[in-house]
Every structure is written in structure tokens, then in C-alpha cells.
Write a structure and sequence with these properties.
The complex is a heterodimer of chains A (about 110) and B (about 120). In chain A, about 0% of the residues lie in helices and about 60% in strands. Chain A contains no helices and eleven strands. Classes of the chains: A mainly beta (about 110), B mainly beta (about 120).
Chain lengths: ~110, ~120
């Protein structure tokens, strides 16, 4: 059973296109996240949702729009893709595990913008 | 100054040795600290969390926290080639519960354990 899943795993597209990445978690967690990891492995939070409500919105271009239809899903839509958007995007969810709030990551989506 | 700093490495140790990974953070109100392991092409995996000053041991891994010095480290004893990965330090202001809500990550240290 996959705890946090993302689709697609790889995404190659042209500059200017619009694309979406989907994320689902079956852990029953209330909170979900989107992270961006650049080529230097730096992992930076983009958004966080708690029970479908946006709670963290870091300085991210408004071309990026998250959407949470329910607390098990958090999708990311990107408009007008740019070369600098090329990165690995990780979805994550968090909840209590043994009394500790723990964050679990999905497998990642490698986005390449040509 | 970066919020969370790690030695970028790469760090190479022989099999069986102790690998020592270091992390400093700038926000004095930080309460909870995490070490994630990330294999090449894979997602980060939590291996240790620590909230109190001192040492926390889990198998071959020991996390050490010194809040006065704003320093957290990870020791890997009896290093194995399978420990070769990038290790990410993450810091959060929250406590034990609700603490994972906003993690700030370091840039990671690449560890290679040589057979």
C-alpha cells in the first residue's frame, strides 16, 4: 500500500504550457504539503493545506496554484511553465505517529521544462 | 545567513567507521529537529527526530542536540555502504505535536561509505 502517491512520476513539457501534478495520501492525515527540490538538492516548502484550508503559502509565483478537493488530495497546477520550474516536486503529508508529528513524502515528480 | 546550514560534503568514510553529520540553525525559538535520508532519485525518509538537549539513540544512529549552540548532529556508527545517501537536516519551531507543520531544510550532506 502506497502511503503518499503522486502522478505523474516524470513530466517533460515545453515552456509556456500548463501542467498539473496530483497527490493522494491514504494515511488519514489532516495536513498536506508541496515542496520543490532543485538541482542542488535544496528542499523548500511551497504550500501547506490543513483540512482543505491553505495554511502556508511561501513566496511562490502565482503561476503555481494548489487545490485540495478533500483532505486526502492536494494537487498542484502550474501555468505558463518556465525553464526555472524544472525541479523535483514532492508532496508530503503529516500526522501523529506514536505521539510525534511526522512528515511523510511521496515519491516525487521530476518536471523538466524545455 | 541561511536558516539551516549543513556541510555540503561530500563526506566519505570507510565501512565500519563512524560518520558524523553536522547542522546549525539560526532561529533560536526552534523546538524540533529532524534528520532525513534521501537516496539518489528517491524521496526523503525520516530517520531521527529530537526535541530535547542531549543524545537520542536509535540503533546505529545517534542524534545530538545543543540548543544553546544551535547545533544538531547525526552520528552513524558502523557505517555500511547502504548508508550512502544525502542526509537532510530539518528544523521547526513547533513542539512534539504539530511540529512537522513547517519544516526548514538544510541543503544536505552527501555521504559515501566506501567498502
Amino acid at each position: 500500500d502506497t502511503a503518499v502517491s503522486q502522478t505523474p512520476k516524470y513530466l517533460v513539457t515545453q515552456m509556456g504550457n500548463d501542467k498539473s501534478i496530483k497527490c493522494e495520501q491514504n494515511l488519514g492525515h489532516d495536513t498536506m504539503y508541496w515542496y520543490k527540490q532543485d538541482s542542488k538538492k535544496f528542499l523548500k516548502i511551497m504550500f501547506s493545506y490543513n483540512n482543505k484550508e491553505l495554511i502556508i503559502n511561501e513566496t511562490v509565483p502565482n503561476r503555481f496554484s494548489p487545490k485540495s478537493p478533500d483532505k486526502a488530495h492536494l494537487n498542484l497546477h502550474i501555468n505558463s511553465l518556465e525553464l526555472g520550474d524544472s525541479a523535483v516536486y514532492f508532496c508530503a503529508s503529516s500526522g501523529l505517529a506514536g505521539g510525534l508529528d511526522t512528515q511523510y513524502f511521496g515519491p516525487g515528480t521530476r518536471l523538466t521544462v524545455l | 545567513q541561511k536558516e539551516v546550514e549543513q556541510n555540503s560534503g561530500p563526506l566519505s568514510v570507510p565501512e565500519g567507521a563512524i560518520a558524523s553529520l553536522n547542522c546549525t540553525y539560526s532561529d533560536r525559538v526552534s523546538q524540533s529537529f529532524f534528520w532525513y535520508r534521501q537516496y539518489s532519485g528517491k524521496s526523503p525518509e525520516l530517520i531521527m527526530s529530537i526535541y530535547s538537549n542531549g543524545d537520542k539513540e536509535d540503533g546505529r544512529f545517534t542524534a545530538q542536540l545543543n540548543k544553546a549552540s544551535q547545533y544538531v548532529s547525526l552520528l552513524i556508527r558502523d557505517s555500511q555502504p547502504s548508508d550512502s545517501a544525502t542526509y537532510l537536516c530539518a528544523v521547526n519551531r513547533g513542539g512534539r505535536t504539530g511540529s512537522a507543520r513547517q519544516l526548514t531544510f538544510g541543503s544536505g550532506t552527501q555521504l559515501t561509505v566506501l567498502p
